[in-house]
Amino acid sequence: MQKTENMSKIKLFTLKEAAAYMGKSIHNISYLITYGRINKYSQTGKIVKKINNGITYVSKKELDNYSKQWSNQLKQRRDLLKIKDQELAFYHLSEKERTKHIHRLHPYLGKFIPQLVEYYLQKYFKVEDLILDPFMGSGTTLAVCSELGMKSIGIDISEFNCMIARAKLEHYDLEKVSKEIDKIYNQTKIFSDNWNLHYKITDPIIKNNDYLNSWFAKRSLAEISFYKSKISEYEYQDILKIILTRAARSSRLVHHYDIATPRIPIKEGESYTCRKHLNKLCMPLDRAIGKIKIYSNDTKRRIQEFSELRQTDNFQILHNDSRTIDLQNNIYDKWKNKKIDGIFTSPPYVGQIDYHEQHRYAYEIFGIPRDDDKEIGRKKLGKSKSAHIKYQTGISEVFANVIKAMNPESKIFIVANDKFNLYPKIIKDAGLEQIGFRERPVEARAEGDKAAYSEKIFECGIAKP
């Protein structure tokens, strides 16, 4: 592609062309520019800091060099793991493919990639089978089941996780949901344009909330409060709540390089040296409306894509404790005389994530009750010996309970890192028996991830009496 005489010496792509060439999104290419991994070029082929008018270009050679360097880093991590079986690594998939359609409706720490679920469901189960995920999380297993035409049940102790899963799996009237998303955004945009410092939030949950008033700028919180106040006017309320909480997450008073796990907020209007933006002086976001617009458009696209792929909406989402739920009665309420045919799940890893706390902004905005004390393996409890024992007891209790509603010949697949070798005892105590085992190297989940990382997949059956 030759744009000018200068550009004939340097192969240049537009951002759209670069995204297609790399198998990534335009956002991914912009990210590389922002982080200084590649340069920004003008139409005349000159390296520039800013494009005032015209189209932004990037260099094919720089893209190739970056890709090669990144691939070498990943290869070094893979080699450290010494895993010969590479079938389940899915190295050929781009990040965009690994988070296809609804799997990125809302950020969620601890989810697995849909291709892993798809591999096992297609290999070991039939389309008429009923699949359970007793640690549903954001609903990945249920979404893949819907694509494959399979019935599914998900259970989770977190009410917000259930909201995410419902929003993903809802069978939408696409024209109506698109209009609702656009209308509530436009209402909020008008409010934002007319906002001033004298505005008083009236929402009783938000206005005197110390957490929200510390973590959000005044204007951001006002926009969030206004958007929330309009949700009840619409039919598809879960998806609107997810758009709002996703926008809120990105609009907190945090450093741009620390969106995922910030520990404390920074002051509104306070500048800092930003590692994300090449050590420039940055300030936290002081409004949420921009993120609401971005995620509104992204959400419409994702639910449209999923609607074209799904083959069924035969699923059930249960907000409950998998250790104690009467699962059989819940199944009979929806599928008379049906038993569960299999499990595909990834339980929480011991001492790694606080599943309620990671979405605290959502719980605070909507006043959602929390069940932190019922989380198994929560980060707050640590990784001590006593934490390991408590974790083993909790996980084994889940499987011991749910197998009461399963066919005797059911197949059970458990995805876990298990670096502490806790699962042999869990499997035995739960009344299961291990049939097989595989280990998969995990692609770096972000450029900052430096450690080699793997997951184990335990194939189990129900132990014979």
Automatic annotation (TrEMBL):
Cross-referenced InterPro entries: DNA_methylase_N4/N6, MeTrfase_CN4_CS, RM_Methyltransferase, SAM-dependent_MTases_sf
Domain DNA methylase N-4/N-6 residues, every copy: 51-165
Catalytic activity entry: a 2'-deoxycytidine in DNA + S-adenosyl-L-methionine = an N(4)-methyl-2'-deoxycytidine in DNA + S-adenosyl-L-homocysteine + H(+)
One BP term from GO: methylation
The enzyme's E.C. designation: 2.1.1.113
Presence of keyword DNA-binding: yes
Top class in the EC scheme: transferase
Keywords assigned: DNA-binding, Methyltransferase, Restriction system, S-adenosyl-L-methionine, Transferase
PROSITE patterns: N4_MTASE
Record carries keyword S-adenosyl-L-methionine: yes
GO molecular function: DNA binding; N-methyltransferase activity; site-specific DNA-methyltransferase (cytosine-N4-specific) activity
Family membership: Belongs to the N(4)/N(6)-methyltransferase family. N(4) subfamily.
Name of the protein described by the UniProt record: Type II methyltransferase
Organism: Candidatus Nitrosarchaeum limnium SFB1
